[in-house]
Amino acid sequence: MDTKRQLALFATLFMPLAIAKPSIEAAHLRPAFAVGQTYSNVFSIMRSIKADGYDEVARRNGGSADYTVMAVSPESWRFQLMYRYDGNGGDKSDLELRDGGRIQCLWEAAGKQACKPYTDGSGLVFNPGIWGTPPSHLAPGVSWTVTLKNAWELGGPNGTQKVTVVSVDPTTDTVVLLREGTASGPYADDRRQAKLTRGGKDETFDVIPGAAHWRGYATFVKGIVFADSLLVTRDVTLKDQGGKSVPVRP
Fold first, then answer.
1. Where are the alpha helices (DSSP H) in 60-189?
2. Which of 103, 129, 216, 234 gives the lowest tally of CB atoms within 10 Å of its CB?
3. Number of Cα atoms under 13 Å in the Cβ half of residue 161
4. Strand-pair partners of 2
5. pLDDT tens figures, 180-225
């Protein structure tokens, strides 16, 4: 069985090799926020589970978010975040991104702050915690390898990812990157159980995640995520409440 999560895919055109390659400095992947700016995004993740003899499960998790810049310093960026998930009402919170986007901090009840690695599969900004630290000079064909020690939204711990520059546009500070990687084990905040239906009856299974592979493209403009797409396939084992494994299929 495979588990697939995806956003809308897009195509990218390569410049002919005979033409001089444009280039850009990696510093342009770091946002230059100003207080009062507002950014918005729309996100969607589709998850599919298939097993022999059971109806396919296909669910989408989607919504939108608005980020208003409240404070900027060399160490962090602070936002007022307003978000909505499909089928649910809106909510808001204070969000702070630290260490160039690697760390996410949220304010909870009574002003308590909770910080953790920023593990969103896409998110608002170029996140070196997911994309790695690029070389100082970027041009089409330049690549680097990232070790993903921590689990993230669409990958398990101890993963390896290769990032390749597809195109750059110095006039708009735009960079298109291709990422491809592998990992094994549970994602961050992964679901440990799944309900499948057979003959109109629901059954609950423990989900034991195996190897995952992902590949996709992302476009960054001045360090902000402009478009992102990723397809992940993952091997898993399903076990019923009696501990019996259920055959799965790709």
1. 128-131
2. 103
3. 36
4. 235
5. 999 999 999 898 999 999 999 999 999 999 999 999 999 999 999 9
